[in-house]
Amino acid sequence: MNGATGSTDGFAGASAIPGGEQLHRAGAAFGTAPAAMVVADRAGGVTLANHAFTEFTGRTQDEVLGRPWPEVCDRADPESAWKLHRAALGGAPVHQRALVSADYGGVSHRIVAEARALPGTGTEGKPDGVVVVFREPLREEETLRVISELRTENADTALWTLDLRSGRLQELFGPSPLGRLLAGDARGLDELLARVHRDDIARVRDAIEASHQGRDYEQRFRMFDHVGDERSLHARARYIPGDHPRLVGTIDDVTEHVQLIRRLADRRRIEAAQGRQVTDLAAKLVSATTVEEVTGLLTDEFAPIFGGAGAAVMLVEEGSLRPSPAPPEEDAGHMGLAEEHDASDIAHPVGAVVSDRQPRFFESRAEILERFPGVAEFLHRTSAQSWATIPIFGDRRVALGVWQVSWGEPHHATPDERALMLTLAGLAGQALQRVRRQQEELQLADAIQRRMLPPQIARFDELSIAVRYLPARAGWRVCGDFYDVIRLPGRRVGLVVGDVQGHGVEAAAAMGQIRVAFRAYASNQVDPGAVVAETNRLLSETGEIVFATCGYLVLDLDNGEMQAAWAGQPPAVIATADSYDLWEPETGPPVGVDSDSKYPVTTRRLRAGDTLLMCSDGLVESSGMPMDEGLRIVGENLRGRAEDVEGAAASLIGLTPAGRGDDIALLIVRMNGGG
Fold first, then answer.
1. What pTM was computed for the model?
2. Which of 144, 380, 481, 563 is deepest in the core (most CB within 10 A)?
């Protein structure tokens, strides 16, 4: 600093110290005559100031003497200087330093202040005051200050220090934009902690408590700024030991970074959810059993994946494109897909797609009009703005139809969207072909099955008989459920209900074989167990992998005696007008499993007025209905209708307690003559 003399007579007010003793003691405290120096009493009031200091600050002696030196040096924020003063009075073993402000040359500067207690002993062993030396920062210190200020000037960063004894928090180089945003005029730690997010406050407090044990500090937490917005912060600090331990560190506003991470995480979650949705819907396509299910998935569930406002499907049938399902008359959301269209009309997008099997994507009305002017009349009836028209392929790239997705605003289909649409359309084409083959098989199997069931059952004066067959609603499933009533010699009647395991034409054909076998063996065998055993042997020796559950009983019309041989069939139900019970004949394994199986015979009497129900398991058992519960429901229903077998059969077919996932065959017999 200019004006530094290093001489003892350079102090204003030196005459107040006899022999200049205090001046010498002050200089000795630093081992050299200072360039600019003040001596202050315990209260901080300046008692001595050399000429270098007065010239440096530009203040007269009257302005300096008697005033607290921290306020003389740093009128804007004297707290750092006061901390320095108190530390020196506390007898710190090393020089205490601080960066304070000083005005000289008409400009505010940051200078280094060093303070130490005056040598000698005052009253009660306490120092009389302090000596403070001022100097310009070293080049390295100035460089560090400039870099630090540049770092915080235009960045969401603040440099801070926390006095661990007083809990006072301040910024190292004065207020920064981030500091003003977070703290405003607040300086107390508790006041600032009150703004920390309640979910983070305990963690932040625990980390500060750990710093009292000499640990460095690092935390990420959320805090509300002075306008109430939530900020995400990252604070780091080093622990500085000493008589006045403190933390010195940085705090960064990482709100934008956290928000970016959240957006990326949300995007990943959305993409993962979409992936799961596509997988689930693709699985539904694979398991679809009707054309309506397939096209319904394309129109109702796949379109929202792409943000489409709607979708439609047209299938090729006899050279024409027909909507599937047929849309409501008032639906004009899809260009020309609400009515039948010529599949060979390449002047229309749907016909062009069918013809060359290439998808078409139109981002705007102008784009589609430029390529297909003939659609102008359709555009008057729709609010859609952009379209994707995708071919639905079958084997050998045969076009089965067209899937069209529309948007209510201009939309650019990304390469990923286009690839996914083509993939889903391909899966839909495979599903359509499979469904059509299954439906053809269904029609054939159903025809075979109905032809193999007896067109008319035998009738007896002593019996009232009702039979029913109900195909499953589980898509294309056709099973081998059957019933029969066989007229036997000696006023006897054979009653049989069975269920061939399997589906389709094979099951229906096997059912016909078993029914014929029962009739053939029953005409020559009195013992029902032998009839079932012979049928089992025949089925086992054919080499076909097919088996069946069945129940066969012989009823004597004269005395009502029943002899039953069971092969895995559900129990029979016997009901009157007032009650019901279950009859569980002893059973053997299903027929067709083991050619050497034997089937025991169980006997019971059917009295006049009793009603007997034999049924396949489709009536009383399913994945959601235990057989015991199904039999209970059927028994309760039959009890109230035992006198009317046709009414009872109709009621049970309407009830179907186990649902319609399997075929149902039932046979109801009532011994006439009872009340």
1. 0.44
2. 481
